[in-house]
Write a structure and sequence with these properties.
The complex is a heterodimer of chains A (420) and B (119). Chain A is α/β, with parallel strands linked by helices and 420 residues long. Chain A folds into 2 domains: 3-66 and 312-411, Alpha-Beta Complex (Aspartate Aminotransferase, domain 1), CATH 3.90.1150; 68-310, Aspartate Aminotransferase, domain 2 (3-Layer(aba) Sandwich), CATH 3.40.640.10. Chain A has helices spanning 3-17, 20-28, 56-59, 68-78, 91-103, 117-132, 149-153, 158-161, 179-185, 211-221, 295-310, 313-334, 358-368, 393-411, and strands at 35-39, 42-45, 50-53, 108-114, 136-140, 171-174, 190-195, 225-229, 253-256, 268-273, 339-345, 348-353, 371-372, 374-375, 382-385. In chain A, α1 packs across α2 (20-28) and α12 packs parallel to α14. The longest helix of chain A is centred in the last third of the chain and has 22 residues, at 313-334. The termini of chain A are far apart. Chain B is of the alpha+beta class. Chain B has one domain (4-114): SCP2 sterol-binding domain (Nonspecific Lipid-transfer Protein, Chain A). Helices cover 43% and strands 24% of the residues of chain B. Chain B is built from 5 helices and 5 strands; from the N terminus they run ααββββααβα. In chain B, a hairpin with a 2-residue loop joins β2 (44-51) and β3. Chain B is globular. The two termini of chain B are 21 Å apart. The chains are: A alpha/beta (420), B alpha+beta (119). Chain A binds chain B through residues 133, 278-279, 281-285, and chain B through 23, 26-31, 103, 106-107, 110, 113-114.
Chain lengths: 420, 119
């Protein structure tokens, strides 16, 4: 089979029928990859070139690319099941909801299932308004919660929103990390505050010490709800099953998606405290999803959680994160004109470069060297590394070597430096 | 057959059960309805006024323009207000007729589930 020809045709068809500008942007970034084989932390282009995937769809593949155990769980389920009829009660939904109640912090207990992160956050925001009978939602600058209606209204980046305005009213934006700013905009009509414990798309922004605890306190004082979006941070990414555990903060509603499906099947969950179920008792059919929490998706979700627990992926995320950190600390000393700061928790990593041209250029150089790591949409001066949590020490070293070679090469080129 | 007085006594208890249930009150705080109950075997009418989840009044007359009309035999009305029967099952068996939106029918069932979870 002529894989070069197949790839060329696939890229041409993609450009013509799906997205010409996306195809062009990927090509320019050296990411005109057509994924073929996938395994562990690696993906092979159709032509056979191997890459370490540090992008993973912004954290979908915590259990690794094409995890065979998860794939087998889905294959087995397909022998007898389909997605199920969403209107009926389902053993698979019940099993996964029960498991989510067991592994999520505090007294989070009940679940609404969906298919993706935006849908999960839509459900969370609707529940917050419905339960509290208040209207206002506070969200953070640079936040990312998805591109659907309610979620889009809570995105902290104008470029995603402006073409579609007017959006849902009652949303108030505040700087991330500033609890006083949250307090300042609170009113008696505030239903909820929605935050990512660590901002992903925003540039891997870690919360200052005490921030999440203080926001929790403010919500309690005003009988408003705290929604934590753990869509990127959840399922062991940061070294604990959920990032909020690092700060001991239990939200009223937690949203998860991405890695719950193991990169095999789309599923999301909006998990909330039992008292909030009182909103759904008189409105049991007010928020439905045809494909959300399908029987197949729930089986995959359970297999994913089982795999994470059985293989101690949280611990591996912490260990491999530490291994990365040793290399990054060296790069901070050796390449101060390129690398300004490293923001990291486990395998949720953001490299802050000194200027915005570096992100795209390093992305290209890394791709040339067999590493997929992409600058963030919010800021091209920040590169996000979110490899699978099954990544091995050898793979980490490969990525670090590729990054060092790329930085060394880049440092010799023109147009680089803090003042450029 | 239950008398008007029997049903009023059951209604008095029902009002206490509903209004003293904090969870129910919170859950129903967005619900205001005027409900008529008709005992079809005796011809007695009862009106219940629910304002923001609180039963503010009930009386043995047909009063105002109802949002919901519940029709059944007097014995069923009495048992329903005492929590001695599952109104959904009677509704599905055709023994209780409800003229209301689907959402309001679910609300009525939700009230029963909260105050008498075992019924």
């Amino acid at each position: 089979m002529d894989y070069e020809k197949m790839k060329k045709q696939a890229l041409a068809d993609f450009a013509e029928y799906v997205g010409p500008m996306k195809a062009r942007t990927m090509k320019n970034a050296g990411l005109d990859i057509i994924e073929g084989r996938r395994e562990g932390a690696s993906v092979w282009d159709l032509t056979g070139k191997k890459y370490i995937d540090c992008q993973t769809g912004s954290g979908i593949m915590n259990v690794g690319r094409h995890n065979r155990e998860i794939a087998q769980a889905l294959k087995d389920a397909l022998d007898t099941l389909d997605i199920g009829v969403f209107l009926l009660c389902s053993k698979q939904k019940a099993d996964l909801a029960k498991k989510l109640a067991e592994i999520t912090p505090g007294d989070l207990k009940c679940t609404i299932f969906g298919t993706g992160g935006g849908e999960a956050n839509d459900a969370a925001l609707k529940l917050a308004r419905g339960y509290t009978m208040k209207k206002e939602i506070i969200y953070a600058q640079k936040a990312y919660h998805g591109h659907t209606g309610f979620a889009l209204s809570a995105i902290g980046r104008d470029a995603y929103k402006e073409p579609f305005e007017p959006l849902i009213p009652g949303f108030k934006m505040v700087p991330f990390g500033n609890a006083q700013a949250v307090r300042d905009v609170f009113t008696k009509d505030t239903a909820a505050v929605i935050l990512e414990p660590i901002q992903g798309e925003g540039g891997i922004n870690l919360p200052p010490q005490g921030y999440l605890q203080e926001v929790r306190k403010i919500c309690d004082e005003h009988e408003a709800l705290l929604i934590l979006d753990e869509i990127q941070t959840g399922f062991a990414r940061t070294g604990k099953m959920f990032a909020s555990e690092h700060w001991g903060v239990v939200p009223d509603i937690m949203t998860v998606a991405k890695s719950l499906g193991g990169g095999i099947y789309p599923i999301s969950a909006t998990i909330f405290k039992e008292e909030l179920m009182d909103f759904f008792v008189p409105h049991p059919f007010i928020h439905l999803s045809t494909f959300g929490g399908s029987d197949l998706g729930c089986i995959v979700g359970l297999a994913v959680i089982d795999y994470i627990e059985k293989n101690h992926l949280a611990e591996n995320a912490a260990r491999m994160g530490d291994r990365f950190r040793v290399g990054f600390d060296r790069f901070l000393k050796d390449y101060p004109d390129l690398l300004l700061e490293v923001r990291q928790m486990g395998l949720m990593i953001g490299l802050q470069y000194t200027n915005s041209s570096i992100g795209p250029r390093l992305t290209k150089k890394l791709a040339d060297r067999g590493v997929i790591a992409v600058y963030t949409g919010n800021d091209p001066a920040i590169c996000r590394f979110m490899p699978p949590l099954v990544i091995t020490p050898e793979d980490v070293d490969f990525v670090l070597n590729a990054l060092e070679d790329s930085m060394r090469e880049l440092s010799k080129e023109t147009g680089i430096g803090k003042n450029d | 057959m239950a008398t008007k007085e029997d049903i009023l006594e059951a209604l008095a208890d029902y009002q206490v059960q509903c209004n003293n249930n904090t969870r129910l009150r919170r859950m129903q705080r967005d619900w205001s309805k005027l409900i008529h109950f008709l005992a079809e075997d005796t011809g007695d009418y009862f009106t219940m006024d629910v304002v923001k989840g609180e039963i503010v009044s009930y009386e043995a007359v047909a009063k105002g323009a109802p949002d919901i009309i519940v029709t059944t035999v007097s014995e069923n009305l009495c048992d329903m207000f005492w929590g001695d029967l599952n109104p959904s099952q009677k509704y599905l068996a055709g023994e209780i007729k409800v003229k209301a939106s689907q959402e309001d029918i679910i609300r009525l069932d939700a009230i029963t589930m909260i105050i008498w979870p075992d019924v």
